[in-house]
């Protein structure tokens, strides 16, 4: 039986893998496991060891802390209530393409693009 933490870690893994445009098979090959193992991590059927988290963080080019970002008691409860609703936006190809293009820009153009998007949405900094 998986815990809320396992579910959170699996979602973060899936989100980052998709953002980088990797298939489960590609990630599994780099990690030296079968793609079914990646599937099990992502759906929280299997727990990830500390060593596996470290390896995945290196392959996915994120700090280990990435997997734990946003994990709080309140957010765990929200995940349970909302299920995958929050992840649907990131499942869309258009969103992934936009994020990939954004991170290919240098820091200054990224900041300008973010400011533009906020201004189009009517947000102001502050």
Explained architecture:
With 126 residues, the chain is an all-alpha fold. The protein has two domains: 4-84, 434 Repressor (Amino-terminal Domain); 92-126, no CATH class. Helix content is 65%, strand content 0%. The chain has eight helices and no strands. α2 crosses α3. The longest helix is centred in the first third of the chain and has 16 residues, at 4-19. It is globular, with a radius of gyration of 16 Å. The termini are far apart.
Brief sketch in words of this structure:
With 126 residues, the protein is mainly α. It has helices at residues 4-19, 24-31, 35-42, 50-59, 73-82, 88-91, 93-104, 107-120. The protein has 2 domains: 4-84, lambda repressor-like DNA-binding domains (434 Repressor (Amino-terminal Domain)), CATH 1.10.260; 92-126, no CATH class.
Number of strands: 0
According to CATH, what is the class of the largest domain?
Answer: Mainly Alpha
Radius of gyration: 16 Å
Q: Helical residue percent?
A: 55-70%
Q: How does the major sheet shape up?
A: none
- Total discrete domains: 2
From the 3D structure, determine the CATH topology of the largest domain: 434 Repressor (Amino-terminal Domain)
Q: Spans with pLDDT under 50 lasting ≥5 residues? A: none
Shape: globular
- Which class best fits the helix and strand makeup? mainly alpha
Count of runs of 4 or more consecutive helical residues = 8
Mean pLDDT: 82
Q: What's the N-to-C terminus distance?
A: 44 Å
Share in β-strands:
under 5%
What's the CATH superfamily of the largest domain, by name?
lambda repressor-like DNA-binding domains
